[in-house]
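JOB MANIFEST
job_type = single_chain_structure
chain_count = 1
residues = 118
[input]
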Amino acid sequence: MPKLTVEGQGEYEVPAGRRLVLALTDEAGTDQLHACGGNAKCTTCKVEFVAGEPVKIAAAEKALLEARGLEGVRLSCQIACDHDMTVRLISRLEGSGRADAGHRPADEIQPPPEWVDR
């Protein structure tokens, strides 16, 4: 099982292939935002990688990050936990002014990923 380390919070074993956004909310118990329900449409699920950033990226994630001019962050809804990684939370419900974190994302990455080079 891959190990997910959430900076300042702890280390968690997560099922291989689990969406990072779900590992952050379910296994780690964080208040990670995911306003669009994990569909690579809003960027509220942003995280910063401290270690173990995946080398692959979904075309939907890459396009959205480029369109928003975002660098140095990734979308937790578009990443599978298939190796050990350490992240820093930057998009949390606390302090966001939102009523909730968003609709629960599906178990599988949505839209179905087309992997491209970063």
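[summary]
The CA atoms of residues 3 and 94 lie 25 Å apart.
The longest strand covers residues 46-51.
exit_status = 0
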